[in-house]
Write a structure and sequence with these properties.
alpha/beta, Rossmann fold, six-stranded mixed sheet, five-stranded parallel sheet, about 25% strand, elongated, binds adenosine monophosphate
Length: about 375
């Protein structure tokens, strides 16, 4: 599970499906004991409580009735303070044991409204059960009989709770995260112009550019252990093993902990590198915002690389067979990453043929929307 984006905000996993299940079952047990010999009427407060009510009722094996009231107080991530009753209660509650099922109680404004609604209904007993409770912001002196879990004052979504109507369908709870970085995977086959564009984009957006190829070449030049290990793979146009590359990439990112974000150039190149990158960023509460790809046909690229080889001094640019092998590695191991990011709606292609300036404009237009 990783960070998700709804509207303009990011949310990270917070309370798992299993944990929710445990809490609900515990609440069912407790309430069933207190309602022994009665046929309680459970009243869910819509919209947020529908999943909680469904799961609660499924586990409640004694006789019971179920109804709903629809109240609303939220706009975006802020409680507006005024609670409106949109759908009221039709049942005769005289002499009944009523148990309110709330998904979350925070300021207590909704709870106040609930007490107001039910005070003239001649109920025998009114009990309040809430799955989540935020004690830090609760301002009322009203009783709450059953609390599933107390949580700090953080905006949560999922399991019925929404952010501007999205997120109710998530099976677990997520909390809002101040994801601060802009992290871009600059993608494309060898010779597509990633390095050239990254140099321009990092200036424009104040991002750190990490080219794994450059880091390897630096290590080869300085004859480090890493360089010696990578050289044989690189010279033949093969990929360096994932483990080596992933460790190196993580160390590079950790060199600038306060970066505004990163342009990853030449990484990830395999699915396991992409997964490792996601997991690594998730630990920091960060994500990849998008894969920005330079789309250029292979024939054009071989010519470009051979031309570059005349001045770059790179052994892997000088021999057509090695270049073909790099494309083979790209086509068999790397190109599939387009699907990996497309599935998350994070793939953005740009025509990589044109002047350097034209292409920077195309890429910037994409980055500005991320
Ligand atoms: P580049 O400068 O990006 O074309 O990379 C040159 C060479 O460095 C590649 O052909 C690989 O041998 C190695 N390399 C760079 N990035 C990676 C990576 N993410 N995974 C494996 N090998 C890499």
């Amino acid at each position: 599970m990783s960070i998700i984006k709804l509207h303009d905000s990011h949310f990270k996993p917070y309370i798992s499906k299993q944990k929710i299940e445990e809490i609900v079952q515990k609440m069912v047990k407790e309430i069933a004991i207190d309602c022994e010999g009665e046929t309680p009427i459970f009243i869910g407060i819509l919209n947020g409580s529908f999943m909680f009510v469904a799961d609660f009722i499924r586990h409640y094996t004694d006789d019971c009735e179920v109804s709903f009231v629809k109240l609303a107080s939220y706009e975006g991530t802020k409680s507006t303070g005024t609670v409106n009753e949109l759908v009221g209660i039709n049942e005769d509650l005289t002499g009944r044991t009523v148990v309110i099922l709330e998904d979350i109680i925070d300021t207590g404004n909704t709870l106040q409204k609930i007490y107001d609604i039910f005070k003239d209904r001649n109920v025998k007993t009114l009990k309040i059960a809430t799955l989540f409770f935020k004690p830090d912001v609760f301002t009322k002196a009203l009783p709450i009989d059953y609390i599933g879990l107390s949580i700090p004052d953080e905006f949560i979504i999922g399991y019925g709770l929404d952010y501007n109507n999205l997120g109710r369908n998530l099976a677990s709870i997520y909390k809002i995260t101040t994801h601060k970085m802009t992290n871009i995977v600059l993608f494309g086959p060898p010779g597509a112009g990633k390095g050239t564009q990254a140099t321009r984009l990092k200036e424009k957006y104040g991002l750190i550019h990490i080219s794994t190829g450059d880091v390897f070449r630096y290590n080869i030049k300085n004859k480090t252990e890493l360089g010696i290990l990578a050289k044989s793979y690189m010279d033949d146009g093969n990929l360096v093993p994932d483990e080596v590359t992933i460790n190196m990439l993580e160390a590079e990112v950790d060199k600038t902990p306060n970066a505004k974000g990163f342009i990853f150039d030449g990484f990830p190149r395999t699915t396991s590198q992409a997964k490792a990158l996601d997991a690594f960023l998730a630990k920091k509460g960060e994500i990849i915002d998008g894969m920005v790809a330079l789309e250029v046909s292979e024939d054009l690229l071989v010519e470009r690389l051979l031309e570059r080889g005349k001045t770059s001094g790179r052994p892997d640019d000088q021999d057509e067979e090695k270049i073909r092998n790099r494309f083979n590695e790209y086509n068999t191991k790397t190109a599939i990453l387009k699907d990996y990011y497309a599935k998350q709606n994070k793939y953005f292609g740009a025509d990589g043929v044109g002047t350097i300036k034209e292409i920077t404009v195309r890429l910037s237009e994409i980055i500005d929307t991320l």
